[in-house]
Fold these 2 entries.
Entry 1:
Amino acid sequence: MAPSLLGGFTKSLAMTVLSEIGDKTFFAAAILAMRHPRKLVLAGCLTALIVMTALSACLGWAAPNLISRKWTHHVTTLLFFVFGIWSLWEGFKEDGDSEELAEVEKELDDAFKTNKGDSKSKSKGNEDTKKQQRPFLMQFFSPIFIKAFSITFFGEWGDKSQIATIGLAADENPFGVVLGGIIAQALCTTAAVLGGKSLASQISEKMVELSSGVLFLLFGIMSLLSGPEGEL
């Protein structure tokens, strides 16, 4: 029996929401939205997350074609348990303060000050020369869009949620995984951009980690009880 679209959708939606709320890229989007036009920040962050979700799902979809579905199922089950224990451990270690938010804000502040200092030290040339010297992508996209995209994309690369998406797509319907992931990313990113730092500071990283840990363990148990073909 083939993995169901609904199963992939619901698991991806729930996993992505709990993985992204309180994540580094969530805080980055909230802080960037305070300093730059929200539409550009939202477009950049969301585009990066959609691209990352699609790439991860493609990798997961390709896995069963390279190795047997039985082995991909076992690896995915193991990943769910590992991430569940990891998240619970991180949750129990949290003291309740939003350390992630402070860390992201400091990094962005340092980058902003560096860029500002560099721009002041450069002499003003004429506009045609400046345009020619701009990177290729900057000539077609806003620098703010590129900044939001790059911070989000590279922030997500190799993250727990990306690896979990690959594993989920290998074991569930990849179209459902992509659809659920994109909707969840859109909800979380929009909330971060509209809510800004005031919303981000209210999020309990401890509760998010504990909740995601329980969810990962639940997925692991469900995967363990079901066979490689997805039947209980």
Entry 2:
Amino acid sequence: MGLLGMAGSAYADEAEHGLAAPSYPWANDGWFASYDHAAIRRGHQVYKEVCAACHAMSLIAYRDLIGVAYTELEVKALAAEIEVEDGPNDDGEMFGRPGKPADHLQPPYANEQAARSANGGAYPPDLSLICKARHNGPNYVFALLTGYRDAPAGISVRQGLYYNPYFPGGAIAMPRVINDGGVEFEDGTPATSSQMAKDVTHYLAWAAEPEHDERKLIGAKWICGALLCLYAMGYYKRWKWGPLKSRRIIWDVVN
């Protein structure tokens, strides 16, 4: 009875919080590992061509991509593709202008109400920090993007929702948008659904923690410096105290 109770509790918890995501081997795992910048570039392409239709990334500016996924000239060209409302001008009126690298990625909707109206009442979350805002971060995002399937027997999903066991409750308003051949990668990488999900997840992980590589590099330098200091201290200790500890004192009790 105890085992049955534990199994029922685990099933209820899984239904409420979603199936636990597996652990995947990400390129930036490990003490001295860094992001895969080719994957970040492909992931940004997936976001731009697939995800940006519903999800914003308001905390990311175009210039953040310089040296990470694109060159400065490429970023300027990307930013120039959008039109940004600026102003007011000398006449007190707002005006449109081509985007600049300092501009942030533009949201697909003007406000939350417009986003909910276009998505059946569901609000697509901002993806800037999604890999930090969700438990198990990149693993959860990847599992969610690739976890769509038909609902098993005994589970009904109301119209307008889609079954995904990794989403809390199992029913999600976002349909499956990552499909084979959804984009055409510039570097010739086959655009399978798993490859697209992996790359866009890697891009979102970078967006949530852009200082990741620099932080690890600084940490490696500090570790090397600390080891050198430790070696110098050990050498100094032996040099300073070696003669004192190895000396021999003889007491002449006769004289």
